[in-house]
Amino acid sequence: KTAFTILTLCLTFCFFGAALAAEKGNERKGKYTYRNVYNACSERGAVQSPKPALNPDAKTQEQWTRVFEGKDFEQFGCQQEWGALSAEDLGDIYAYLYEHAADSPAPAKCK
User: Fold this and answer.
1) Residues 6 or more apart from 88 whose CB is under 8 A from it?
2) Is the pLDDT of residue 15 over 50?
3) Section 28-39 average pLDDT
4) Considering the entire predicted model, what is its pTM?
C-alpha cells in the first residue's frame, strides 16, 4: 500500500511538472522566433536593426510574466509581426525571456 502511494505521488508530480513546462513553451524555439520577428520587421523597414528591441535581461521574471499576461507587446515595436504570432509562438518567446531574465540563474542579452 505504501509503495503504491509513493508511486502515485511520483507520477502526479511528474505529470504536473510536464504540464507546467508545456504551458510555458520552448525557450530554444522562443529565442529563434524572437529573433525572426525582428528580422522580418527590419526587412519590412519598420526598424533600423534586426536586433530585438529588448534583451531578456531588461526585465525580471515577474515583469516578463506581467507583460505576457497583459499582452502588452507595444513596447517591443513591430506590432504587425507580433500580431501575427500564434499562442504557441508567444509561449515560446515568453519561456525564452523568462528563463533569461535579469533575476534568473542565466541572464542573457540578445547577440
Assistant:
1) 25
2) no
3) 94
4) 0.75
